[in-house]
Write a structure and sequence with these properties.
CATH superfamily of the largest domain: Hotdog Thioesterase
Order of helices and strands: HEEEEHEHHEEEEEEH
Distance between the termini: 33 Å
Largest sheet: 11 strands, antiparallel
Number of strands: 11
Number of helices: 5
Radius of gyration: 19 Å
CATH class of the largest domain: Alpha Beta
Length: 261
């Protein structure tokens, strides 16, 4: 099952809980996702939700589970552009808390200047303008489609998502954790943008990276996304050490000093 479908379920859960709270669905300010167990196509999934008390903004926790066997597919924390509300005491369970990322950083507030990213050679997409594919025919980009600002457009270098090991096995990277920040306010059709990416950490089987998309006219970051990726042997369906050629690909982009603060 495509993991983007998990996020759609969680977003629907946020909308439903806001309705129960008697508030209009506020815009998303940040989201955290942690993937647990892959679910097969056709599985019935249920969302269980709770308000996280405290903090400045309304935060909602979701668990996405298989309705048949209660298997945990993914957990989410949504931070909304709405003041925090009084709620019963609730603490994130261990399986819902971040493993390698933080819920207290702000990648937009701590984003480097766009000029610095150009100087470091970290552009991953060619400059472009927000088009009707981004806005889905509207005048502004729908919140659910903000990821296209980061990953749409033309890449400077083409990389195969699925690669081949010397023994013929196929491998790729799976996102295990992700935190995304979205600037409040609309992004209009025709806005000039460009995306950048840096590697922050590289372990034996796991890499951590961050990507930003900027309004190139104002220099303002519009969206940022920090992710933890696990290297997977798709043929044997198991985690493996990151191949040496992938290490060398990442080295020029390795800038841990650009991690969110």
């Amino acid at each position: 099952m495509n993991v983007r479908y998990y996020g759609i379920n969680a977003s629907a859960g946020t909308t439903a809980l806001c309705e129960r709270l008697g508030i209009a669905r506020p815009p998303m300010r940040s989201s955290y996702t942690r993937h647990h167990h892959e679910q097969m196509e056709g599985a019935d999934l249920v969302v269980r939700s709770a308000v996280i008390p405290g903090g400045e903004r309304l935060r909602i926790y979701h668990e996405l589970r298989n309705d048949a066997d209660d298997d945990l597919a993914a957990t989410f924390v949504h931070e909304l552009d709405h003041p925090a509300i009084d709620a019963p005491a609730f603490e994130l369970p261990d399986h819902g808390a971040p493993r390698s990322l933080s819920l207290t950083t702000d990648a937009l507030a701590s984003a480097p200047a766009i000029e610095q990213l150009h100087d470091l050679g970290l552009a991953m997409r060619k400059p472009r303008s927000v088009d009707t594919d981004d806005t889905q025919g509207a005048d502004t980009v729908p919140p659910a489609n903000f990821a296209t600002l980061l990953w749409g457009g033309v890449s400077f270098e083409e990389h195969e998502w699925v690669r081949t090991l010397p023994n013929g096995d196929r491998y790729a990277y799976a996102v295990m954790e992700q935190r995304t920040w979205i600037r409040p306010g609309p992004v209009a059709l025709g806005t000039n943008i460009q995306s950048f990416r840096a590697s922050l950490e590289l372990r034996e089987k796991v890499g951590r990276s961050i990507a930003w998309c900027y309004d190139t006219d104002t220099g303002e970051p519009l969206i940022a996304s920090e992710a933890v990726d696990l290297c997977l042997n798709l043929t044997q369906r198991r985690a493996i050490a990151i191949p040496a050629e992938s290490h060398s690909d990442t080295d020029p982009d390795f800038h841990p000093e650009l991690a969110p603060r």
